[in-house]
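User: Here's a chain of 540 residues. Predict its fold as tokens.
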Amino acid sequence: MKFRSFLNIVAAIASVLLVLATIGFSWIFAQSPLGLLRGSPKSTPTAAMFVSKQAPVMASLLVNPDRLEGLRQVTAKPGDRAATRREFEQFTQGILGNSELNYRRDVQPWLGDEITAAITTLDVDRDESNGKESGYLLALATKDTERSREFLQLFWQKRAIAGTDLAFEDYKGTKIIYGKVESDSVPITVASAIVGRQYVLFANSPKVLRNSINNAQAAELNLENSSDYQTAIASLDRDRVGVIFANLPALAELNGKEITDTASSAAIAIGLDRKGLIAETAIIRGGTDASLSKQSLDALKYIPAVAPISASGVNLDRLWSGLSSDGTVSKWVNSPIESLGKRWNLDLPQDIFNWVKGEYALALIPQGDTLDWVFLADKTADPEAESAIARLDELGKAQGITAGTIQIGDQAVAVWTKLDSANVDKKIDAEVVGVHTAIGKYEIFATSMNAMKAVLNAKKNVLANSKSFESAIAALQKENAGYLYLDWETAQPILEQQYPILKVAELAGEPIFEHLRSLTISNYGNRSGVQRGGIFVRLS
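Assistant: Prediction complete.
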């Protein structure tokens, strides 16, 4: 054999081995829990075929929970793995409630790669005279039909022994079993069925299961073939392990409210990151496409790193116009804006937001037991900005506020004070209601002298240079319209005081809140009538 021929054979063998090694590595990585960082092989839930187009909300996990546990074990420190295993046990058992069912024994052997839960209807019997009862559906993919049948058989046998009267029904070739089951001493209806060899269905009424079977057999009825659903899901770019879809008008009605803006539906893709959870949102609403650029962090160079809550971006005038027209969102943002406006005796949207056409940043600064706000805006983006700022002092004077100037170091700062002579000693006290100053192209406003000092003395210890903030935005799209950032450790007691109901949410989502470090929301702009955004939940 010639040496050249020998080399050709060696090269051919090496090439085959390289290809096999690549395929083998890809297979191993796909089977490894780390493969979940690239998302699930499934991008949409097949159980959407059971859900009506009019359903208020549907949420799907597109991987087997065991793979999530495996990923958590791989990424956890060796000393934390026993604790993470206990957390998973608590989570799965919590889902099963107070029943005698055990996840590992009863569900794990047959559970497949999809879990879908949905509120299918606002009223199961569509009769308002007897009150409204929402319909609930749980669809579990099965990888072993016989094991899942055995599970259901055992489940209902135990109910029968406990005295439950069971009803059996054959509906379009599917066997439905239902009866009253005790849950926390309250009898509730539970209905179940196995559809084909793929899904185990549970519902709170046999009517829900009948409708689900109808939806699966008539494509025009189900969510999978809804144009809004298809548009919203197609707008999600990220790899994902879970999907949430909501019919916004129906969801608002479920909460006893009426949606007042043009948004019709929303989808959320939930993916995994080594440092937490990343979600991408898509809301279907009208509007023109928005061109975005990489978000500048220059405004955050003046926000102290201790700020637990901040919002930054560009074109505040446009953003506020959009928020104020959104009936749902405006209720959340109007309250703090109105409170801040009252403190300064200003109509913030009219007197300030209108001229903020460049960068801006708003942040909460803790000062001992008090909380102060800092707001800064690029005044070079609007030629009317300087005159608008000068007009603020005139507005203050007309409302009994005195404008003066003091020095903080080398910086001249304008001070708004309100005189108060209502005390027994007839002393005149001057209450500082706000301060503002100009640094470079920015006008900076603060609710107290201490807050302004914190800004002027921050130097390099600012949010733009903060490692925590860098980590909090790392997983988000760089081209965006700004960030809403929350440092959970510092913000938690503040938010709990303002919103006591948050403590209830923390109990319900304990595994997440226990490890929560920060939450960041970003706006990716409008594309083809779909408002897109991102949410990064950074976990320890």
